[in-house]
Amino acid sequence: RMPILEQCYNLMDFEAVARRVMKKTAWAYYSSGADDEITMRENHSAFHKIWFRPRVLVDVEKIDTSTTMLGTKVDMPFYVTATALGKLGNPEGEVVLTRGARKHNVIQMLPTLASCSFDEIMDAAEGDQVQWLQLYVNKNRDITKRIIEHAEARGCKGLFITVDAPQLGRREKDMRSKFSDVGSNVQSTSGSDVDRSQGAARAISSFIDPSLQWSDLPWFLSVTKMPIILKGVQRVEDVIRAIGAGVHGVVLSNHGGRQLDTARSGIEILAEVMPELRRLGLDNRIEVFIDGGIRRATDIIKALCLGATGVGIGRPFLYAMSAYGLPGVDRAMQLLKDEMEMNMRLIGCSSVDQLGPDFVDARGLSMH
Ligand code: FNR
After folding, report:
1. Most buried residue, 49, 57, 133, 210, by most Cβ within 10 Å?
2. Which atom of ligand 1 is nearest to the CA of 255?
3. Catalytic center residues
4. Backbone phi, psi, residue 230, to 5°
5. Pocket, ligand 1, Cβ cutoff 6 A
6. Which atom of ligand 1 approaches the CA of 315 most closely?
7. Between helices 297-305 and 266-279, what is the axis angle to 10°?
């Protein structure tokens, strides 16, 4: 018997339901990580190395979970990160996430490899809803330039260039499940031939430029006024270089454990990056986000304590959407909001801007 939506009490519950109801190929694509999936597991378990140091006797009657990301005021410090091929999990695709994000006033990052067309997802937004674009850089820069210009014209508020995927990782679960329903939009946006014998991921990614390098960044900065954020940075040297290059942000991320296996978790990298940026007086020069393995509000709070502006969440919303559609996404976000308020109250902190390193004992992280 399938649990009803009200029986999902946390984000992991959606995963358990999705696993049972999703098509095998879709489950394989969403759930897989690279190689032995060591990084994918570590992404979540790394948060368990951090412990809270609550303050007591603080007025926590009212809790404010809102914050600002790249100039946009949001109700909670997370965003829906870019995940390709939404229609594998739900016939309506990414627009379901758009509606959930709207309801909770959080930002959605649109994937280059969405199943819905870019315009369909932009059209699904309402009022002043803010969206960002994740960009896979095409070998053909004319295509990339057109995508960027169109996104800016349509009102996208951030350009997240994925820098951790010069080649797609080997996700063996995905490769084993022969893949047949990529959908036509994906081919037209990526301008690539689809090889269906290598799993979903590889089938759609052959257009990505593996020669992308630092010297390309001035060109991106010259073709758009959108803030540019590098998604998939993994070491402090590259964060410092990104600041020097004039980009506006980085996402410390290992792509949900789908690229380099045994890469470090975002939270571990954050603990390396922020103290060094503070030491160099650079911490206000750039917004630092992390993603990967965030399943509980305590994970979000820990990231903010260590200096993140916000966090991206991927699979949990895909699973909620696949299992229950929009009501699932809505409930997943509401659960996170309830957890946020409760846990901020319990650590003795009434607003996100007051979170800081003193609230955590992060000595269990290796770089600390
Ligand atoms: C992704 N991710 C991703 N990232 C990206 O830059 N471009 C993409 O097309 C995709 N596609 C994609 C598909 C699926 C099914 C997943 C699960 C992930 C990575 C994503 O943006 C993010 O880094 C991770 O999903 C974060 O980890 P969690 O929250 O899924 O654990």
Report:
1. 133
2. 23
3. 136, 164, 255
4. -90, 120
5. 29-30, 43, 81-84, 111, 113, 134, 162, 231, 253, 255-256, 258, 291-294, 312-315
6. 30
7. 20
Q: Tell me the residue type at 363.
A: R
Residue nearest to atom 16 of ligand 1 (CA): 83
240: Cβ contacts below 8 Å, ≥ 6 apart = 276, 277, 280, 282
With cut-offs at 50, 70 and 90, classify the pLDDT of residue 294: very high
Residue nearest to atom 6 of ligand 1 (CA): 162
**Residue (of 334, 263, 325) closest to 292 by Cα position:** 263
Q: Do residues 217 and 148 lie in contact, with contact meaning Cβ atoms separated by under 8 Å? A: no
Concatenated DSSP letters of 35-104: TT-HHHHHHHHGGGG-EE----S---SS-B--EEETTEEESSSEEE---S-GGGT-TTTTHHHHHHHHHT
Closest residue (by CA) to atom 3 of ligand 1? 83
The pair of three-digit structure tokens given for residue 304, joined into one six-digit string: 């903010």
Q: How far apart are CA 47 and CA 317, in angstroms?
A: 19
pLDDT at 183 over 60: no
Asked if this assembly's ipTM is beyond 0.85, the reply is yes
Q: What is the pLDDT of residues 153-170, one digit of tens each?
A: 999 999 999 999 999 998
CA of 239 to the centre of ligand 1 (A): 20
Question: Per-residue b/e over 185-195, b at no fewer than 16 CB within 10 Å?
Answer: bbeebbebebe
- pTM here is 0.94
- Distance (Å) from CA 82 to ligand 1 centroid: 6
Q: Which atom of ligand 1 sits closest to the CA of residue 81?
A: 21
* Strand ranges in the chain using DSSP code E only, listed in sequence order: 51-52, 67-69, 72-74, 78-80, 108-110, 131-135, 159-162, 228-233, 249-252, 287-291, 310-313, 360-361
pLDDT in tens, 253-277: 999 999 999 999 999 999 999 999 9
Residue 174: per-residue pLDDT: 84
Are the C-beta atoms of residues 186 and 115 closer than 8 Å to each other? Answer: yes
CB-based contacts of 275, cutoff 8 Å, min separation 6: none
Partners of 58 in the β-ladder: none
364's tokens: 């269990």
